[in-house]
From TrEMBL:
This is Acyl carrier protein. Pfam families: PP-binding. It comes from Amycolatopsis rubida. Residues 2-79 form the Carrier domain.
Amino acid sequence: MSTPELTAEQVNADVAELLGCGLDELTPDTDLADLGLDSMRIMSLVEKWRGAGAAQLEFADLAEDPRLGHWTKLLTGGAQ
């Protein structure tokens, strides 16, 4: 599901902005649920990233493993 338009930096920035935290608080092992991520926020990211070219992205893709590294790998094809 790699999306050329999305970079690891963009994924990280979008997540940090949504959660109201600094990029320095995020690592690939960060469990985003621990930082307050909920289903409504996941859906807003799904919609944002679909608009950026991740047309096949589904809620379950992100919800099943809320670690930032998993999301980055899923959306960028492995770049973290």
